[in-house]
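Work Package 3 (structural annotation) set out to generate three-dimensional models for the target panel prioritized at the project kickoff. During this period the team completed the workflow that converts sequence records into C-alpha cells, so that structures can be stored uniformly alongside our sequence database. As a representative example, we reproduce one entry of 426 residues exactly as it appears in the project archive.
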Amino acid sequence: MKIIRSILYSGVLVMLLTSCFPEDEDLSLGEIVEAAFTITDISTSEMRNTYLLESSSEGAFIYKWDLGNGTVITGSKTDTAFFESKGVYTVSLTVVSAGGQSTTEQQVTVEADASTGVNVLLGSEMDDESAWTFTSTGSTMTSYTFSDGKLILSNGTEVAQTNIAVWQEVELTGGTDYQFSASASGSGMTNSWVEVLLLDEEPQEGVDPSATPIAGLNTWTGCGGDAFDGKLPAISCIGDGKVSVAEDGTYYLLIKVGSWDGNLGTTGLILDDVVLVGLDTTPLVEGDNILVGSNMEDENVWTVTNVGLTLTTVEFVDGVMKFTNGSEPAQTNVGVWQAVDVEAGQKYRLKATVVDPGATGSWIEFYVHTTEPSDGTDYTQGRIEIGGDTSFEEAGTVYFLIKVGSWDGNLGSGVTIDDAQLVELN
C-alpha cells in the first residue's frame, strides 16, 4: 500500500502543479539577445594601438569582452582595448540576457608594436600644419592639404612627375633607439614612392635629399601598387621604421612623396598619427606617487560621482575604500575620482590593492583621462589596468577615476581598494 499511496500522492501533485498555470501562458524567459559588436581603431600619437569596442546588442545586462591577449573585461556595451604588441587577436563578446547568453568574435590585426616611450614629433595627429615644413626637391611639387586631421598628398590621376619633402626638426639622444610609425592609406600608386628619412643636415629648397630610408613604399620594389591601409612600418618594403643615432643633436625627420611617369592614385596618400618614439632601453624606476589620499584615510580628497545608475555605496573604513550594494541582484555603479596634474611626456604606472570577496556580474575599473567626470554620465575613456602605464603629450590636469558596479549581480560582502597610486616612472 505504501507504493500505491506514493503514486497517488505524486499524481495529485502533478495535477496541482499543472493546474496552477493557464495553458496559454508564456513561461519562456524571452529570446536570447544575439551578441554583435564593432571594432574601431581610435589610436592617436598619445594612445597607440587603442581600439573602441561597441556592442549593438540591445536588452543584455552583462557584456563580457575577451581581448584575446589574456585580458577579460566585464563591463559596459562600450569599452576600449589596448594591445602592446603587433599580431592578430581574436576579440570575443559574450552578452547575457533574460533568455540566456550569446557569444560572437572578430579578429583585429595590430600592425606594429605600441613602442611605449616618448614621441619626439609635434603635430603627429596632423591637426597643426605649422608643425611641418614642406620643401621642393627640384621637381614639380606634389600637392598637399590638411583635412579632417589628416595630411593628403596627391598629384592627380594622369601621368605625373612630382616630388615633395615633408619634414620636421627633432632633438634626439645618442645611443637611443627610435621607432617611426604612421597610419598610411591609399587607393594604390603607380611608379611612385614614399620614403621616410632621418637626416643630420637641414633639408634645402630645391635639393632632393638622399639617405637610406628607414621605412616606406616603392612600387618598383613591390609595395604601394595595390590599395593599402595600415601602419607604415607594417606595410613597408624598404625598412621597418627603426633607427638609432650615435650622438645627441639636431636631426630632421623627412617624408619624401612623389611619382615619375605615374601618380599617387585617386585618393592620393593619406597620412595620420605620424610618430617617432624613443624606445625604452633601460628598466624604468618607480618614483613619486602623484595621487593624494592613496591610503584611503581622507575621504575629502575623493569625489563621488553618479555615472549613470543607482549609486553603489562607498565608505572609507579601516583605511580602505569599500564598495557595497547588498546581497541581492542589483544594478548600481559609481565613480570615485580626483584631479591631478601631469607632466608632458612623463610616464605613470597604476598601482592598487583590490580585494574582491566574490562579486558576481560586477566590474572594478580604473581610468586616467583628460575629460572631467560629469554627474550622471558613464565614464569610459582612458581605461588602464593595474600595472599598466600611461603618458600624456601635454602637461595639464587629468582625472583619475575608480568605477565599481554591478548589473543583476552584487559585490558580495564588499569590494575594497587601498593604496591606489599613480607613480612616476623614471
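The first strand starts at residue 37 and ends at 41.
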